[in-house]
Queue: 2 jobs
Job 1
Amino acid sequence: MKDLKELTLEELKEELIAMGEKPFRAAQIYSWMHEKLATDPDEMTNLSVALRERLKTEYAYTVLKTAEVQTSRIDGTKKYLFELPDGNYVESVRMEYHHGTSVCVSSQVGCRMGCRFCASTLGGLVRSLTAAEILEQIYCIERDNNERISSVVIMGIGEPMDNYDEVVRFVRMITDEKGVNLSGRNITISSCGLVPMIKKLAEEGLKVTLALSLHAVTDEKRKEIMPVANKYSIAELMDAVDYFFDKTGRRVTFEYALIAGVNDTDRDVNGLAGLAGPRKCHVNLIPVNPVTERGLKEPDRTSVLNFKNKLEKKGINATIRRELGRDIDGACGQLRRRHSDPAV
Ligand code: SF4
């Protein structure tokens, strides 16, 4: 059964024509779904009861259930655990910034990339999300807070480039001027470095930001913490980063999770500056969230600041990711894990 929320306006028009309905109905339905955030075709009061009934019986209509919300007492960050129609769970996070509200969404249930510092991958990949399920994470948060969000980061559970088609469909839908009309510039897609997919993304004509999870500056070190490095070398990654910039004019951001004693030495500073400097890439430092199972430690605050200062002295534009919601289940994937296994 096709999902109404998964269809672009053009595809929806074709469906309505095939149903023997007037094509303008598509714009009405589209607006109910993406502007008015209807949770049920029954809310679409400018459609006939008969058409609403047909929509309900002939199509799926993805809506997520909120299973849990945690609110940080420190900064108001809200972490949501959503139940998908098939009973699986994903997490999303709503963060407040001075320029508006940002939502971090998941793109898969679990992940098969195996990064050592990440809780989301401990149970492997269960399945990828549909574009409708990614959209709905945002819509649920918008309904809950009575707002429209201003930016999206696809950096929650999952590797977005391992769910390429649905992630690109999601971006096309959320940037559609007849729907949410979010600017591509306000969308960030993260990737642990699936080189062919990054090159493909560069050719889609989307003005999104790519955040590359680099986390180490030598192939050897990267292989220790990210299995994907066995497949693609840092040289290949940098080639993909350059290709992305050539095609889109958008500079890639390097994400760098600082792990005490693993990737926080002066050598690492030099290596990182060598990769980011010539490309004028911004570096986002993330003090790693401790994952109990993996015994990885977060560097102390002074080491993090020192690392940043040394990078800046080398002319690199670096920030430390604001540590939002440290008093709630901060590390991505932990809320879902705790929900499925209370011992965690
Ligand atoms: S960091 Fe991202 S790519 Fe790596 S295992 Fe976690 S979710 Fe997957």
Job 2
Amino acid sequence: MSNRTEAIKVAPNDAFHIETVLWVRHWNEHMFSFAITRPASLRFRSGEFVMIGLQGETKPLLRAYSIASPSYADEIEFLSIKVPDGPLTSRLQQIVPGDEIYMARKTTGTLVTDALKPGRRLFLLSTGTGLAPFMSVIRDPDVYVQFDQVILFHSVRRVSDLAYRELLESKLAGDPLVEDEAREKFHYIPTVTREPFPRQDRITTLLEKADLFDGVEGDHVLDPVHDRAMLCGSMEMIKDCAAILERLGFEEGSNAKPADFVIEKAFVG
Ligand SMILES: Cc1cc2nc3c(=O)[nH]c(=O)nc-3n(C[C@H](O)[C@H](O)[C@H](O)COP(=O)(O)OP(=O)(O)OC[C@H]3O[C@@H](n4cnc5c(N)ncnc54)[C@H](O)[C@@H]3O)c2cc1C
Ligand SMILES: NC(=O)c1ccc[n+]([C@@H]2O[C@H](COP(=O)([O-])OP(=O)(O)OC[C@H]3O[C@@H](n4cnc5c(N)ncnc54)[C@H](OP(=O)(O)O)[C@@H]3O)[C@@H](O)[C@H]2O)c1
């Protein structure tokens, strides 16, 4: 990003914050995380997304990104794909601390507990970068007040795609606001579908086999009476998981009409 700071900047307008990159962590050749400064006026709900980007030729080049940090966090964190010829991420993957990022003022999204009816177990079903909004939800202390168990599934192609694996396997150890609750209530269920790994089934197969629940208390079949779910991944994954949940009697919710499960695509295409 060496010449980015010299680029002619669009004058900041009311729609955007211009924030500074604080750190960058590359997980592998496909994914990286980074954090930017938090604008004082930003308010969002854990699980929401926002438009972010870089200066383009004449105007900011923006894409939708889930915020991976919880609503109270001092820094705003993101988990990003690296699309080799992607208009934004071919450049975004080169950011370094001190670079500037555009961020829209408005956040939105359906992967929020407000869009779910009260329940006992919260299932977070993700593939690829669909993990991002759930990194926000699981680090929010309120979710452990609302649910007895929070069960995160992350399905990826390769072992190295398991971003945040160490933190998740540790049950968020070291996070002062949630580590005590998470030790009791949080469960991480990674699955790797194209390399040897202890669990290799797709989430859909795990749901069908009712084989989800290493260490998770209660029924092995999801029940709309007390279970709630959030889905984030490719369109196919969402479609297939939603069909299974609907067969089990789950109803899709929204901010306007909270129900049993909510969906959001992790990317378009
Ligand atoms: C609601 C919403 C939330 C999103 N949140 C995130 C997020 O938290 N992290 C993130 O990396 N992306 C996220 N995306 C995707 C993001 O908006 C961009 O598509 C992505 O940053 C690539 O931008 P690009 O300009 O490089 O390529 P684009 O032209 O946007 O995409 C090119 C192609 O790359 C593939 N692709 C794009 N994004 C992904 C992805 N995340 N995973 C796998 N394949 C992908 C698709 O096939 C797409 O057609 C989200 C999209 C939506 C709609
Ligand atoms: N390591 C990599 O090769 C890699 C990593 C990241 C991104 N990318 C690139 O980014 C794009 C998308 O990446 P991605 O990793 O998010 O891909 P993805 O194809 O969505 O795969 C992610 C995980 O979702 C599973 N999955 C796919 N469709 C599903 C469905 N209908 N129901 C349930 N589970 C489903 C996959 O299982 P299956 O393996 O069984 O399909 C895999 O475990 C690809 O075009 C790829 O080129 C590649």
